[in-house]
Design a protein that fits this description.
Largest sheet: 7 strands, antiparallel
Distance between the termini: 26 Å
CATH class of the largest domain: Mainly Beta
Number of helices: 0
CATH architecture of the largest domain: Sandwich
Strand content: over 45%
Low-confidence stretches: 1-5
Number of domains: 2
CATH superfamily of the largest domain: Jelly Rolls
Helix content: under 10%
Shape: globular
Oligomer: single chain
């Protein structure tokens, strides 16, 4: 996927289907977005090889080990019940909608899943961008704002994107680009992963 300036404009929507499926060690992957952080803390375009952060959806279909050029990775199970990840001599269970942040330069091993699983995968170079993921419950009465350096990924339910001059219904697993100035906000019913990239 090649990002563009338009892709990262305030309130832009990136459908998951826009990204083609590719293989990775555990199954399939769709890279939704990648880039760098500007000096102002906004996300900006870059070539994939030069990116300091990446957002993707990945399936786990088998037990295997994998590595990443990014030291920091945040895993959120968005479909399926459980998988165990082993790294640096320890094991961590991954449960639905409970982000797990791992910082390691070593390979990570996945247990054999009992069903096909889907992960929201966030990766970052901690020297250039600090990555965090929060799962928020959406409401029709209280808007969820998305600010500079943030991406909102609709995990479950239905939601609407509200901009100063327009509204748009979101599709499941759409990603919305945040902005301080553009003030994109989300309301609806369901859960959204708010992915934040901050300057170190």
């Amino acid at each position: 996927m090649s990002n563009s300036t338009e892709t990262f404009s305030a309130g832009a929507v990136i459908p998951l289907a826009q990204s083609s499926k590719q293989s990775w060690e555990l199954g399939q992957v769709r890279v939704i977005a990648h880039g760098v952080l500007s000096e102002q803390g906004t996300i900006a375009d870059s070539k994939l090889a030069d990116s300091s952060w990446q957002l993707s959806v990945r399936s786990i279909e088998k037990a295997a080990s994998f590595g990443s050029k990014y030291q920091t990775q945040v895993f959120t199970l968005i479909a399926g019940d459980f998988v165990q990840l082993e790294f640096d001599g320890q094991a961590q269970g991954l449960e639905p909608l409970r982000p797990l942040k791992i910082s390691t330069r070593e390979e990570i091993a996945s247990s054999q899943p009992t069903e096909e699983l889907l992960l929201l995968h966030v990766a970052a170079d901690p020297a250039a961008a600090r990555a965090t993921v929060r799962i928020v419950e959406l409401s029709k009465k209280r808007d969820q704002y998305l600010f500079d350096g943030q991406l909102g990924f609709l995990v479950q339910g239905s939601a609407k994107l509200v901009l100063p001059d327009s509204e748009k219904q979101l599709g499941l697993r759409d990603t919305v680009v945040g902005s301080d100035a553009g003030e994109p906000r989300i309301n609806g019913r369901g859960f959204m992963a708010v992915v934040s990239f901050d300057l170190p």
